[in-house]
Amino acid sequence: MKSCYTIRQFAPDDVEEVAILFAKIFTEREATAKAVGASLNEYYTEISKKVCESSAKESLSFVCVDDSLPTGQQIIGFRLCKTFKIEPTNFSESKVAIISNFMNDMAKKWLREHPEIAENEEMQRKVLTFQGLGVKTGYERLNIATKLCLATLKHAKSLDYQHVITVTTAEASQHLFA
């Protein structure tokens, strides 16, 4: 396996590849997805595909690419982001609706703790939300997640974002944000 890789901005053409990788990683490793028993297909359809599509609308997310891999399998890591926004409550009875609603509840809690931002829409547009972070199996411990986060933060700072929020529920991400 090649340990040389590149980090670049997430592009609309990356949506499908990242959505599949996102669903695979999160259903295998992420605590809430495992706790609710989300299948790969459920997670893909109701979360990862939607998150990737929304992330592709803003130039805030990054991917890590290994060009030595076949086309369609070259993305080995991702950091998906969006400008802060409270999403509508998901009234679906699916297992993964619980996850979406939990993330929304955490965003609402953060706003309650920051009334100066809650009451100011302009300031809310200066808040970056980390939505998903993942590294393909076999590429762990190469600092890819850290490099993706740093690239994202540097880019967000250049765009005058003032705050970043994240909910870290996967075991591997706990040490990044402790």
TrEMBL record:
<dbReference type="GO" id="GO:0008080">
    <property type="term" value="F:N-acetyltransferase activity"/>
</dbReference>
<dbReference type="InterPro" id="IPR016181">
    <property type="entry name" value="Acyl_CoA_acyltransferase"/>
</dbReference>
<protein>
    <recommendedName>
        <fullName>N-acetyltransferase domain-containing protein</fullName>
    </recommendedName>
</protein>
